[in-house]
Amino acid sequence: MSTAGEINQLISRRTSLLASLGRAENFLAEFDSQRDQIQLHVRLERLEKLWDDLESTQDQLEEIETTDEGRKMQEKIRANFEPRLFIIKANLASKLSSLVTDARPPQPTYTNSTLSGIKLPTITLPEFDGDYMQWLTFHDTFLALIHSNSEVPPIQKFHYLKAAVKGEAALSIESIAISSANYELAWQTLKDRYANEYLLKKRHLQALFDIQGIKRETAATLHGLVDEFDRHVKTLHQLGEPTNAWSTILEHLLCTRLPDDSLKAWEDHASKTDNPDYESLIVFLQRRTRVLESISVNHNTASTSFNTSGQSTRKLPHLRLSSYTSTTDSNNQCPACDQPHPLIRCPKFYRFSATERQQLVMSKRLCHNCLRRDHIARNCSSNFNCKH
Predict the structure, then answer these.
(1) Which run of H or of E encompasses 202?
(2) Taking Cα atoms as reference points, which of 150, 158, 49, 140 lies closest to residue 101?
(3) Do residue 93 and residue 169 come from a single domain?
(4) 8 A C-beta contact, residue 167 and residue 98
(5) Listed residue (50, 383, 38, 5) closest to 217, CA to CA
(6) Would residue 3 count as lying in a domain?
């Protein structure tokens, strides 16, 4: 068992190392390319030593700790300095790479007058937590922005990869030491784990059969159904499946998910068409969604009257204040991930525990029955009733 003196010595050592970390951050914040570029190599080498010492000291303190409260405090300290180390090292490597690039002969540049004065938005690296359904998006984006970028050194690519993967995916490369030589190994490890076309095909095919039908027809529910169904079909086609030959099967499968009104309208339309197929069904449903949106706008307009002075006299529904939410929020925007789909079809929401789901519903003031805004459960007009 370590003595109090040894523990205090370790804490003092860690404090000194964290102070060095702070000085490295100050160096980057005040970096002058003309004055400080000569220090970059040395700073990067010193950072490697600082990283090893800080990790070693923190490991010892965590092994010594015996109480739950103490362990949580140590985990919090580690969670604070680890991201700082990654950021500092990535920035130092980036500045070093920029200096090498600047030393090359200037290359001719071409500008497009139509883009003059326009600042393009920064592309944010995607995150991947091991969800097979998101692998293709993550793979293609990371490949284009980082992996295939010859201007980014391997060690920096490795740091970007470490920062982008979370959860189960992060665990798969956790044991690989960060180094230039190991970057390709880490990237290949992820590909071997998740770039399994056979498994990806099965998961997307299963997702097609698992899509729930809708009973209450609105523009939002119909739009969400069509988008989700067609997304899986297009992904399967991208994976090499002959989805063009599945037209009859896909048309029938999607029809079984449609609400009665849409299904009747489609069957009436199909009876007047020589060869109704899946593509024509998608076009029909997209057109029907636009019609429903127009009807919704017309209803909202009709509910607003104007007095003789031209001012709106629209009456808002009489709701309890506790259940009122701003009508500027779009029902199409998911409260869990901010993507354009209803909460009931959110993959992220499905992965929440029951407690996390309840907390989200309460914090966003959603209906506990249909998970939508603008009303509470007792005023819910949905035909669905939660069975769980």
Answers:
(1) helix 197-210
(2) 150
(3) no
(4) no
(5) 383
(6) no
Secondary structure (DSSP) of 247-308:
HHHHHHHHHTTS-HHHHHHHHHHHTTSSS--HHHHHHHHHHHHHHHHHHHHHHHHHT--B-T
Q: Say whether both 86 and 141 belong to one domain.
A: no
Q: How many domains does the chain have?
A: 4
Distance CA 280, CA 282 (A): 5
- Contact present, 313 and 306 (Cβ < 8 Å): yes
| Tokens standing for residue 168 | 């189960």
Tokens, residue 158: 């490795």
81-132 pLDDT per residue, tens: 888 888 888 888 877 776 644 444 444 444 444 445 555 566 667 788 888 7
Alpha carbons 384 and 388: distance in angstroms, whole number? 12
57, 14 Cβ separation under 8 angstroms: yes
Mean pLDDT of 343-363: 81
**How does pLDDT run across 141-192, given as a tens digit for each residue?**
888 888 888 888 989 889 889 988 888 888 888 888 888 888 999 989 988 8
Q: Is the pTM of this model over 0.85?
A: no
Which of 332, 334, 320, 319 shows the shortest CA–CA distance to 364? 334
Quick one: which of 122, 131, 290, 115 has its CA closest to 199? 131
Q: Considering the domain boundaries, does residue 132 fall inside one?
A: yes
Host domain of residue 42 = 8-100
* Total number of residues shown for the chain: 388
